[in-house]
Amino acid sequence: MNGDGTRAAAERERSWWGWGWADQALDEQACAKLARRVSPFLPLDGDLAPVPVLPELPAPRLAPPTAVAALCRADARTRAAHAYGRAYRDVVRLLRGVLDNPPDLVAYPRTEQDVVAVLDWAAGAGVPVVPFGGGTSVVGGVEYRGGGPWLSLDLTGLSGVAEVDEVSRAALIRGGTFGPDLEDALRPHGLTLRHFPQSFEFSTFGGWLATRAGGHYATGYTHIDDLVEALRVVTPAGIAQSLRVPASGAGPSPDRLWLGSEGTLGVITEGWARVQRRPEFRAGAALRFDAYADAVQAVRAVAQSGLRPANCRLLDPLEAMLGAAAADGASRLLLAFESADHPVDALLARAVELCRAHRGVPEEAAAGTAGQWRETFVGAPYLRDGLARLGVVVETFETACTWAAFEALHAAVVAAVATAGVTETGHPALVTCRFTHVYPDGPAPYFTVYAAGRRGAEVAIWDALKRAAGDVIAAHGGTITHHHAVGRDHLPWYAGQRPEPFALALRAAKTALDPAGVLNPGVLLP
Amino acid sequence: MNGDGTRAAAERERSWWGWGWADQALDEQACAKLARRVSPFLPLDGDLAPVPVLPELPAPRLAPPTAVAALCRADARTRAAHAYGRAYRDVVRLLRGVLDNPPDLVAYPRTEQDVVAVLDWAAGAGVPVVPFGGGTSVVGGVEYRGGGPWLSLDLTGLSGVAEVDEVSRAALIRGGTFGPDLEDALRPHGLTLRHFPQSFEFSTFGGWLATRAGGHYATGYTHIDDLVEALRVVTPAGIAQSLRVPASGAGPSPDRLWLGSEGTLGVITEGWARVQRRPEFRAGAALRFDAYADAVQAVRAVAQSGLRPANCRLLDPLEAMLGAAAADGASRLLLAFESADHPVDALLARAVELCRAHRGVPEEAAAGTAGQWRETFVGAPYLRDGLARLGVVVETFETACTWAAFEALHAAVVAAVATAGVTETGHPALVTCRFTHVYPDGPAPYFTVYAAGRRGAEVAIWDALKRAAGDVIAAHGGTITHHHAVGRDHLPWYAGQRPEPFALALRAAKTALDPAGVLNPGVLLP
To answer: Which residues make up the binding site for substrate (chains A, B) (predicted)?
Structure first.
């Protein structure tokens, strides 16, 4: 997340089996240190799974015409790197060399016309095409599970900021642009998209749009949905270009059909996004709450105040202990405000006042806590991979619910997942919760689970935990996903969440736009 | 817009031919006074069209089964009142008694099951059903133009606030609830929906949803789209109920399919909406700008500052003269901030500072101007009806465009409409502009046109003006409608604005949800 993103990317290698940069994976020493940190909480078997060796792959089963073939790669490393997303269950499978059905080919279009050519061929030949941005899906969104041959469509060749409208504060960004690259391109204009999902370094603008990504800002226009001015989408039925206007009341929003369509209704090649001046004024605080219920009420008060903090991250006691080294059984709230135009100290002061009314205590030493969370945040997936090698089952899931529903949902999720996580070791799973986003009508709780694993059974253990979590969330009125998308892993609960007539409409729209059914089959519409 | 909405409604009668309450139509004396005000600007023929007498209507051509018939009215007044919306061209036609094809029946469902019964019968019998909230459409949205028999589905019997969740700040509001009634129901809870379109008194919650209404707040969450938590919609293919959560990333948003669907994809029977505490802190100012271009730059600076004024209404010189009695050739900007939680004086001061940097001059005597605009705003349609009786062609249209596009768009619209408005009197039309809403990436300009009419030719004159306006807006990158919806009158430009693949998807969704094609035929999808 620094200015060297582009330059560094040219020199550094992405991991084919784990998160992010290959050279940032924890080494043996770091894993040993991690093991010492974890062992007080969870039994470890003392093993460390080795970094995997790239397995041999069967020969590709596809032979596209020359024009398309020229865009494709078929080497084992490229195919393996495009076989899965980067969920825990993906990393565990790759650690074991499990590559049951990697893509036969990976296509790298450089132009919109290349995308058209790939889709034309695929539709005619009936070849499933899975659009692939940065490949950071944690819900099986880029993993074809149909068994037959398929093509992964890597869009990172459609990269760069094509145009900046400084007057209207908008930028035309190509779909395959990684987060750091688009920020690098906007920085000389004094502008920022100000959209920082946890995957920022390794995910793309088009991926954010296709999955309705949530940035890390707690309130306000934090979802990519709200930052979009216009979209350009290649569908098998033609190219859709929406009008670039700040708002329109002309029928249902065209953009909202493709936002969240996860590659099933077309390939987003570029979009105009609203950008902002870079923040210059900042103020932050951290507060301690002895009672979690008080902290929740304080956050609700802040969320309903109209103050719109940039950060409003409530850590429950276990999250505070594991994530912020605060082992006193209290909850921690990280608050921050920022603006490109005016001082925000008064806003922070009012938010702190609201928290004090709910027995929140500002902490002297908290500046570090507040400042360092971002580093921990972006580094977490590397730790996750280290834990996976140590045999720990570790994963996150998230939801959003109303304030009225939260208390019961939180208690039920923690209880159900801890119980479902009692593996043969006898240890219950650890479940922590933080709020990533808060709205006037409810929070977006984000849960992290740590459970004692058993070598070879990790995926099954996680799937059981996930089933427990998903069922309890649905039963308590939460959405199956606030920002992780649906992919293939959330389908059972998504089917229950979406209104049946909407499923009919979506299916009809899909058939109209992708009559051959080749676009990311198995996602959203099984 | 006062607390007596409900009580008053029981005693007062709605006009069947003009805007709002029958007893608020301008009387002859008021029309004479209006004529004196207008005559310096536009030639008048000295006539005053009389208040029309309800014409005889042909007998209804529909005979639904008893259960549905019991919900229907067929008296001439009810049918006439449901024949059109309340655009200028509607009022002019009604002033002349032009009722070519009024609805044969008007159904008044009291329950969701009643709606299901009406749609079941209509789908089976192939009878067009036009959902009708308050009937304030200005784009032909509630006027069936197919020629055959049809039914108007008046939803105002589905009325009231069914539930209030004070913790999550949300309310379950039935679709047929008028603005004042829902505010009356929320007031005892200290809450407000804070959504005030100009039609507030006479339009319904369901109508706002179906047309993507814009409230009168200039910035922030002013569109009804952003205030919706969940929807319930009766479609011929089943009932759609979305999940009540503050946010979700589960596929394309189901609610966004029905928002703006204008009755073509289902009947919105109720919805959960985000409500707020009633504002307690307020601050406002009015500023004079000698140069309109300076004023536009100042507003852009405020819109891009993140200050989020509740009101940021820029009046161009002609609008300031006709609407705010400021005949000095300068533009006026009305600024206001409000909050339920904290003082907003510092926000106002910063906004004024931004305006001063663009040569804005705060006005001493401006408090009245700023305070009175709302009264003028809600009373405007009554004046419009008076002008129509005086023979003036008077109407409004609106758009939204980027800041970069605004200057050229504004100049071109004013020129084209003034020219197109040179009727046989030789007088060009007067065209005024104000900003109703402003966004970081562009304004929503709202134009009012006054042209010398000719008795009997008013509709044709207006249609020519509208064609000129629509063509110029489209040519300059503006949306054909920012908050007036598409209806039937905006179809030619809507077809050009929406991406063709989206039209395919929408058509397919329509066929899936309304296979008999009975829901508001002729709107959105001709």
So the answer is: 384
- All CATH 3.30.465.10 domain ranges of chain B, comma separated, are 161-277
Q: What is the mean pLDDT of residues B173-177?
A: 98
Say if residue A373's pLDDT is above 70. no
Instruction: For B68-100, write each residue's pLDDT tens digit.
Output: 999 999 999 999 999 999 999 999 999 999 999
Split at pLDDT 50, 70, 90, the class of A370 is: low
Determine the average pLDDT of the residues in B237-245.
98
* β-strands B105-107, B151-154 pairing: parallel
Which of A168, A339, A509 minimises the CB distance to B508?
Answer: A509
B115-138 average pLDDT score: 98
Which residues, 6 or more positions from A97, have their beta carbon under 8 angstroms from its beta carbon?
A52, A53, A55
Instruction: Determine the pLDDT at residue A371.
Output: 57
CA nearest neighbour of B259 among B514, B486, B517, B522: B486
Least Cα distance to B259 among B324, B193, B318, B205 occurs for B205
Nearest to A498 among B167, B254, B483 (CB): B254
Residues of A in contact with B212 (CB under 8 A): 249
Distance from CA of B57 to the nearest CA of A (A): 33
ipTM associated with this complex: 0.95
Compare all CA atoms of chain A with the CA of B304 and give the residue at the minimum distance: A276
> What is the pLDDT, as a whole number, of residue B7?
44
Contact B106, B152 (CB under 8 A): yes
pLDDT bucket at B425, cuts 50 / 70 / 90 = confident
| Cβ–Cβ contact B242 with A under 8 A | yes
Secondary structure letter of residue A248 according to DSSP: -
For residue B220, what is the nearest residue in chain A, using CA coordinates? Answer: A220
Domain B279-375 = CATH 3.30.70.3450: yes
Residue B365 has pLDDT above 90, yes or no: no
CATH 1.10.10.10 fits A65-72+103-278+490-526, yes or no: no
Beta bridge pairs of residue A337: A283
Q: Is the pLDDT of residue B122 over 80?
A: yes
| Predicted confidence (pLDDT) at residue A176 exceeds the cutoff of 60 | yes
Contact A165 B239 (CB under 8 A): no
Cα angle vertex A222, ends A219, A228, to 5°? 145
Residues 456-485 of A with CB under 8 A from B: 477-485
Nearest to A433 by CA among A399, A466, A402: A399
Rounded Cα distance between B346 and B350, Å, is 6
CA distance B63 to B61: 7
Q: Is the dihedral of CA A341, A346, A352, A358 positive or negative?
A: negative
Residue with tokens 């001493």: B364
For A61-111, write each residue's pLDDT tens digit.
999 999 999 999 999 999 999 999 999 999 999 999 999 999 999 999 999
Fold annotation for B161-277: 3.30.465
Q: How many CB pairs under 8 A join A and B?
A: 319
Question: Rounded to whole angstroms, how far apart are CA atoms B418 and A432?
Answer: 65
pTM of the model: 0.96
Q: Is it the case that residue B4 has pLDDT exceeding 50?
A: no
Q: Average model confidence (pLDDT) for chain B?
A: 94
Q: CATH 3.30.70.3450 residue ranges in chain B?
A: 279-375
* Cβ-based contacts of A499 with chain B (< 8 Å): 233, 239-242, 254
> Per the CB < 8 Å rule, is B505 touching A509?
yes
The answer to whether A353 contacts chain B (CB < 8 Å) is: no
- Superfamily (CATH H level) for A281-475: FAD-linked oxidase, cap domain/gating helix (3.40.462.40)
Question: How many whole angstroms separate alpha carbon B265 and alpha carbon B235?
Answer: 7
Rounded-to-integer distance, Cα B206 and Cα B175, Å: 4
Instruction: Decide if A247 and B439 are in contact by the 8 Å CB cutoff.
Output: yes
